[in-house]
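Weekly puzzle thread! Below is a chain. First person to post its structure in token form gets bragging rights.
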Amino acid sequence: MGLVNRWDGSSMVNAPVNRWDGSNWVTAVVNKWDGTKWVNINSQAVTTTWDCTWTQVYQGDGTKRTDSRGNQLMQGMYDSSWGIHRSLIGFDNGSTIKSVLAGATIQDVSLYLHNEHWYYTTGGTVVLGYHNNSSEPATFNSTVNDQKRQAFSARGQAQWIDMPNALGEGIRDGNYKGVSIYINSSVKDYYGIFSGYGDGSYKPKLKITYVK
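Winning reply:
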């Protein structure tokens, strides 16, 4: 609940504050000085976490892996037999998260990934981008690559990765529906395997803090 409230007869509820913009009534932003900075007092910050809805690994030629690794997540090249792996994580079918975020200001976005294996015991680096697929495409398709790089220091490590707010804004605006994992490199520091949709509590998750 924001700090601008009213009594509805039984409880305190948010009190909308509006202003005339010359043609329509729109929500007014009300701030107060907390001693060091201006903070919003009439909008509520909400943090919501969503599990992924699907994951898919693709081999070097861009087609799906259909073996036991297919529904996990892989990046990079172990040897030439599979080529350079890349993967997609689906979070939104085009309406679910988008509807929740409609009209919201995105404040923070983070992605949970659980690593299962790196080529080296000292870890590696995952390279993340965004895609706009509502379900697994037949061939790898990423809207934008290499928007965030995150180092892992060991095999089996899990992290909440701080992502650019552009990911949440893109989902809100209908431009993105999930995260891609891909770098066009055979350097072994990038070869890694991550838990996927079928891996219970280790599956990827997306956490977004937003204000409405």
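Puzzle host: Confirmed. Bonus trivia for everyone else. The mean pLDDT is 92.
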